[in-house]
Structure to design on (1413 residues):
């Protein structure tokens, strides 16, 4: 690419051109002002020549032709350093104007960065005013004394023919001190060549006088230097130019319409001007310059070229070195050799003899450097760089020179600032021409000086460079745009600032660099607000509200500013995507009541499946009930499935979580649901209408909905969300009429000014829709069919404790209310945990608690005993004819007992049917849900072991541990359940509880004897009347009257469930015993309520087996010591054996009496069997008997061997029948006589027998199989001492 | 110890997954976004450089006024090259450990407080 064709080349061709100084008289100006132009402006368009075709010869006589040429015209008064302040003002104005023009439409979208477009051409992308601005900046630095290319080459003197004594006027021009300072102070050669121009206005008359003056001039100044220009030839008719040549040159075209420019200049005039200027340049300026170049070149060659001169020069400079050390270096006047070299270089540059220019620049640069004339040095370096560039020789050199120049200018500080800017701009253009945009950007960055506005523009240009660089550096672009925006802001160019930030936004959008995003949005918001464009401001400010990563002060600042802006808008602002507070859509729950109604929120939160399984039995099955189910019911069911149903007058609740991400608390008010109501129940139509409507404008839609709330009522919630808080909010909407209700979203007011919306539908994850096969609409969940009002029961359980100790027994009341006028009937109820909660009887409502539990001496308890297994597990039906209506509550007693420690959730379902309302819903269910925390209280355990001394008597050991941390209890009573057991204390109660109570952590154990009651179960009538000693009081005698009847209503029922719960594998085993321990919380003795405990606790322990070794138990009864005279005869001793069959069936028992000899092996094997079978028995209470047995069996193992080895004579023999077969009826005892013979005195162990028992296998199912059907038991040790009687 | 040091780990698509101000200088209110700006801008250069070199440590890739950016994205104002290098090495090791955590989804934000304290300790040690 030809360097001259680049933007920089073009710029240089335009800017570094010969300067013509114009001096004119006022009358000349007057004449040209008739055209609306100054004389300078009149001439300017004709100063650039595209094809002037002038032959030029270089200093070394190389001929070439100039084609493009341009002159710069300046008034003499303008040939000076431009006023900095004026220039700055002008620049500022330009920027401001550009800002107005370029200010983006607030409604428009963010500018998209089109990379392909940027690659094609840079000037389309960068704003055009940059170029103008840059030009201005370059111009500001012109007419410096250190450069020669701004020095006028020729002086054009213009005098009007109207002027008096025109010749004198020409002379006067140079006598006065109007001349620019450049010429006067010696920086420039004052002997400037001159050209004399006589201007004649044709409107003033014919040109006679003018031609006369011209001849006079020619005589005075020489023929070649004088010329005549006639203007304003078109006398009357204003001349219309096809394309006005001046229009593009007049910058402030706003003041005068371009049409009127040059209206009196006809084509002849223009041609004349053209010819004049061409002649001027080709015949005067160029030859002049050429000549000057030659002269200077000769001079320079003479003084500086050649080895001798160089040495001399060096020597001379060295000597001067220590003298001048000022920043500007020594002053050079025009005839110093340095200035002349510079002039030579510049002239050569202007005439495009770049080689010559370069060699001269090189020559002079070293001189200036040695002289420390930094500004001049920099200037020369700058020109060197440009020359290198144009010659396209060495890029590195060019850049090096430019950088050198730039740095040197910068070193000069404020003096060199303007020049540095110019140099930088040229440098940038140079880099741009070589596609080194990245480097260009860094240069732009370095140009930024103290002037903020200036640096803002530069930064913005730098950012564009980054954008244009390849690969385009978007992030850098964003950063620099932001930087420039900040600078714009500092000098109040708000519009520019906004524009730049918006550009940045397009880069940063979608990134997760939180601080950046916040910064950009916040500032744009602020600035829009300062321009009073609040809508856009709010839009941007909403982006930064949820800035949880920012510090607290920043959050406060953001929120404060935001609210301020919103306030300024003067109305409540509504936005769809308000980020504050954050709404947790995943926590959204819609609770509505169709046929299911809920007594409490916790009931609604309980799993639907749980309720379903609970209610399974209660709900009528439709298909069976309806005869014409095919037609009617299926339709109904279909409808029910496709749409949610809610009842008019009953609220639909929505719970959702609001989260405050900030550290500061935010006030939120009037949180309401946004709902849509349509009177028609036809869903399809309404859907279509709505979907078309919704797409259009969501906000309007929301607004409409909020105002129209005649057919439904929404609740309002106000709250203050603390920093970082998360709050669950319950909202409700209550439809009033039948129709279709749809919940669309939620709206809230932040700080009372700004309204936010949240659309549930948009927030919902879409995946669950995908799974469905049917084409369900996504909003199905929020859509309700509202049906006519039907009765709804309200229920509660009254004094249900939140916390209770295990075993706590309480009486509760279920209260049902029906506020509607229609009665409900067919009430049914079911409870999930009958172990904890059972339904009492109607008459219990009135009875006093816990007195009703106490034993009444004359009470009739037959009803309990008559039907102890009332409908335990099934649905409880309220009595026929029970209907709830009106204000009077329906009460029903309930019994509560905290069965086991832990958190228990109790569910109750109450089913009811509508009285006489015809509706889709035939029945409803009230669901009640309560949570009870049960704390551990007393840990009760029992151990039972049989008495050896008597049959069917047992020793019971009770261990009670108080597991609470603070509570003390008084253990009151231990009862055995059932009538076949009698229980009594072994010790006196006072000795067990010295302090009368069981302190926290205390453990006691006490012993009871348990005896099987002798009475047979057949005499049932006697049972209730006879005092059964099945209760053992553990309290002192003083409060004797308090005895609790464990057979009374709630206790026996609870006991039933406990039995079911604690049941192991003992079904049908009749030898088990159940215990109930009654206790109450102990109050300190000074408390009056001591004797009247308000609560009772019962602990149930069931299924303690008394039968340790199978169903057969026996007892050998006989004498312990006998005296016998063995000298007389052997001793014959008769004994008795009581055998009891505790099994439920007749047992076959065979008693084998074994002689001591020969049967050891057999016995051993039996033992093994025995112990193995006992091991199979489960339950801890069996352990003791097993251990016991093992001891005996061990003894048995050794015993026979011992007996054998010792002495056979000392043994005894069974003298009765060796084997006895017996049939023992179920639950009965028999007595068998036994006899032994002893031959010598001694102590005998009579355990040498075995009982084989067998139960008939009647195949009663699985439970029977687990039991033993037959077994063998070894005899007990029974020691008999026989003494020799004397 | 450097007075200013802002450390950021950036995953693909310019998503910052870990940020920490590890300098000793009192945190200025506007510093956070300035640092982010600088680091974000420096990504351009990193992107270029990443293709030209296989080294993990790129020394100072970009500078803004007195602040220098080294890669693995540390913005600092000190000249302690060796310290920065070893800091990066250790942090990289830490990062790999985090990556090996099966519960960590690569590319998501590192929220582990353990990682944070470790990085800060390393910064105290090396910078």
């Amino acid at each position: 690419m030809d360097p001259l064709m680049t933007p920089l080349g073009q710029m240089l061709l335009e800017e570094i051109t010969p300067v013509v100084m114009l001096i004119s008289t006022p009358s000349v100006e007057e004449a040209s002002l008739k055209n609306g132009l100054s004389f300078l402006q009149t001439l300017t368009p004709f100063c650039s020549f595209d094809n002037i075709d002038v032959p030029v010869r270089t200093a070394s006589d190389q001929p070439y032709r100039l084609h493009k040429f341009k002159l710069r015209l300046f008034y003499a008064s303008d040939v000076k350093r431009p006023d900095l302040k004026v220039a700055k003002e002008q620049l500022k104005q330009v920027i401001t104007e550009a800002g107005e023009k370029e200010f983006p439409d607030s409604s428009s979208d963010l500018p998209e960065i089109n990379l392909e477009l940027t690659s094609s051409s840079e000037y389309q992308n960068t704003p055009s005013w940059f170029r103008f601005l840059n030009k201005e900046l370059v111009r500001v630095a012109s007419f410096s004394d250190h450069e020669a290319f701004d020095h006028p080459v020729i002086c054009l003197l213009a005098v009007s023919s109207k002027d008096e004594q025109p010749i004198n006027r020409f002379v006067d021009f140079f006598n006065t001190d109007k001349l620019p300072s450049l010429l006067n102070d010696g920086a420039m050669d004052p002997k400037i060549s001159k050209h004399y121009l006589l201007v004649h206005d044709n409107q003033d008359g014919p040109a006679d006088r003018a031609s006369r003056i011209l001849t006079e001039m020619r005589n005075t100044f020489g023929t070649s230097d004088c010329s005549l220009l006639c203007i304003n030839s078109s006398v009357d008719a204003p001349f219309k130019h096809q394309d006005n040549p001046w229009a593009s040159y007049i910058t402030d075209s706003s003041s005068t319409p371009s049409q009127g420019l040059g209206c009196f200049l006809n084509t002849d005039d223009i041609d004349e001007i053209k010819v004049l200027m061409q002649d001027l340049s080709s015949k005067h300026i160029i030859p002049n310059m050429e000549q000057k170049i030659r002269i200077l070149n000769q001079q320079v060659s003479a003084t500086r070229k050649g080895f001798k001169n160089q040495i001399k020069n060096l020597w001379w400079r060295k000597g001067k070195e220590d003298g001048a050390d000022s920043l500007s270096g020594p002053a050079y006047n025009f005839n110093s050799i340095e200035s002349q070299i510079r002039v030579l270089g510049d002239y050569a540059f202007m005439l495009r003899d770049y080689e010559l220019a370069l060699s001269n620049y090189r020559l002079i640069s070293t001189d200036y450097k040695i002289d420390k004339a930094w500004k001049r040095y920099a200037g020369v370096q700058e020109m060197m760089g440009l020359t290198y560039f144009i010659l396209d020789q060495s890029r590195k050199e060019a850049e090096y020179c430019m950088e050198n120049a730039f740095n040197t200018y910068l070193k000069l500080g404020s003096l060199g600032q303007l020049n540095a800017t110019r140099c930088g701009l040229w440098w940038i253009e140079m880099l741009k021409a070589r596609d080194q945009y990245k480097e260009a950007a860094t240069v732009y960055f370095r140009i930024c000086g103290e002037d903020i506005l200036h640096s803002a523009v530069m930064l913005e240009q730098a950012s564009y460079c980054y954008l244009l660089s390849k690969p385009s550096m978007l992030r850098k672009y964003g950063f620099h745009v932001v930087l420039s925006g900040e600078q714009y802001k500092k000098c109040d160019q708000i519009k520019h600032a906004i524009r730049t930030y918006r550009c940045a936004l397009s880069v940063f959008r979608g990134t997760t660099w939180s601080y950046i995003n916040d910064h950009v949005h916040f500032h744009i918001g602020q600035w829009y607000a300062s321009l009073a464009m609040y809508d856009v401001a709010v839009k941007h400010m909403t982006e930064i509200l949820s800035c949880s990563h920012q510090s607290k002060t920043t959050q406060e600042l953001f929120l404060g500013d935001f609210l301020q802006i919103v306030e300024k808008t003067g109305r409540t602002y509504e936005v769809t995507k308000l980020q504050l507070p954050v709404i947790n859509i995943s926590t959204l729950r819609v609770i509505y009541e169709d046929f299911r109604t809920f007594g409490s929120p916790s009931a609604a939160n309980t799993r639907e499946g749980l309720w379903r399984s609970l209610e399974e039995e209660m709900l009528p099955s439709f298909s069976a009930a309806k005869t014409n189910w095919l037609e009617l019911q299926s339709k109904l069911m279909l409808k029910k499935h496709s749409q949610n149903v809610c009842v008019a007058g009953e609220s639909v609740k929505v719970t959702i979580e609001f989260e405050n991400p900030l550290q500061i608390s935010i006030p939120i008010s009037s949180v309401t649901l946004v709902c849509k109501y349509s009177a028609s129940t036809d869903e399809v139509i309404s859907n279509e209408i709505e979907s078309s409507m919704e797409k259009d404008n969501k906000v309007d839609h929301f607004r409409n909905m909020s105002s129209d709330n005649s057919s439904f009522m929404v609740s309002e919630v106000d709250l203050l969300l603390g920093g970082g808080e998360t709050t669950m909010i319950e909202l409700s909407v209550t439809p009033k009429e039948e129709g279709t209700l749809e919940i669309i979203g939620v709206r809230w007011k932040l700080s009372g000014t700004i309204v936010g919306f949240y659309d549930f539908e948009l927030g919902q994850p879409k995946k669950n829709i995908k799974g469905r096969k049917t084409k369900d609409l996504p909003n199905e969940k929020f859509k309700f069919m509202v049906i006519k009002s039907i009765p709804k029961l309200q229920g509660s359980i009254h004094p249900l404790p939140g916390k209770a100790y295990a075993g706590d027994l309480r009486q509760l009341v279920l209260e049902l209310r029906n506020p509607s006028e229609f009665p409900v009937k067919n009430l049914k109820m079911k409870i999930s945990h009958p172990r904890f909660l059972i339904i009492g009887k109607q008459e219990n409502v009135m009875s006093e608690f816990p007195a009703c539990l106490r034993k009444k001496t004359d009470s009739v308890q037959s009803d309990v005993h008559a039907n102890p297994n009332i409908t335990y597990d099934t649905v409880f039906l309220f009595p026929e004819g029970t209907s709830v209506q009106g204000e009077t509550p329906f009460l029903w007693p309930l019994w509560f007992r905290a069965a086991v420690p832990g958190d228990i959730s109790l569910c109750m379902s109450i089913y009811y049917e509508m009285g006489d309302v015809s509706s889709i819903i035939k029945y409803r269910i009230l669901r009640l849900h309560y949570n009870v925390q049960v704390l551990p209280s007393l840990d009760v355990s029992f151990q039972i072991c049989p008495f050896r001394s008597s049959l069917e008597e047992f020793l019971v050991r009770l261990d009670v541990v108080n597991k609470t941390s603070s509570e003390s209890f008084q253990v009151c009573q231990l009862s055995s359940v059932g009538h076949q057991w009698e229980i009594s204390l072994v010790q006196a109660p006072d000795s067990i509880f010295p302090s009368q109570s069981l302190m926290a952590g205390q453990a006691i154990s006490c012993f009871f004897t348990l005896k099987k009651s002798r009475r047979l179960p057949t005499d049932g009538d006697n049972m209730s009347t006879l005092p059964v000693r099945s209760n053992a009081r553990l309290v002192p005698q003083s409060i004797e009257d308090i005895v609790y009847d464990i057979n009374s209503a709630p206790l026996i029922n609870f006991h039933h469930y406990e039995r079911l719960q604690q049941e192991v594998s003992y079904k049908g085993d009749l030898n088990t015993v159940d215990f109930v321990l009654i206790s109450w919380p102990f109050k300190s003795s000074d408390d009056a309520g001591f004797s009247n405990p308000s609560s009772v606790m019962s602990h149930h322990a069931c299924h303690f087996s008394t039968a340790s070794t199978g169903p057969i138990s026996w007892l050998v009864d006989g004498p312990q010591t006998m005296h016998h005279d063995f000298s007389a005869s052997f001793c014959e001793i008769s004994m008795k054996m009581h055998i009891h069959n505790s099994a439920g069936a007749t047992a076959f028992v065979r008693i084998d009496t074994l002689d001591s000899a020969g049967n050891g092996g057999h016995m051993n094997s039996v033992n093994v069997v025995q112990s193995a079978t006992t091991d199979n028995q489960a339950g801890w209470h069996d352990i003791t008997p097993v251990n016991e047995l093992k001891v005996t069996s061990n003894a048995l193992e050794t015993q026979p061997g011992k007996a054998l080895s010792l002495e056979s004579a000392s043994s005894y023999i069974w003298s009765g029948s060796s084997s006895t077969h017996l049939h023992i009826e179920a639950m009965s005892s028999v007595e068998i006589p036994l006899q032994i013979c002893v031959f010598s005195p001694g102590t005998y162990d009579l355990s040498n027998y075995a009982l084989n028992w067998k139960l008939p296998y009647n195949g009663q199912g699985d439970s029977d199989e687990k039991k033993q059907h037959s077994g063998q038991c070894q005899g007990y040790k029974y020691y008999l001492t026989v003494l020799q009687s004397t | 110890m450097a007075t200013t040091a802002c450390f950021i780990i950036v995953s693909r698509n310019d998503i910052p997954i870990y940020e920490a101000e590890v300098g000793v200088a009192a945190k200025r209110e506007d510093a956070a976004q300035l640092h982010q700006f600088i680091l974000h801008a420096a990504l351009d250069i990193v992107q270029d450089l990443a293709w030209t070199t296989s080294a993990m440590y790129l020394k100072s890739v970009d500078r803004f006024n007195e602040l220098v950016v080294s890669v693995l994205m540390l913005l600092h104002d000190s000249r302690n090259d060796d310290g920065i290098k070893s800091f990066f090495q250790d942090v990289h090791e830490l990062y790999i450990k985090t990556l090996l955590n099966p519960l960590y989804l690569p590319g998501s934000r590192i929220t582990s407080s353990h990682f944070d304290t470790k990085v800060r300790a390393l910064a105290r040690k090396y910078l």
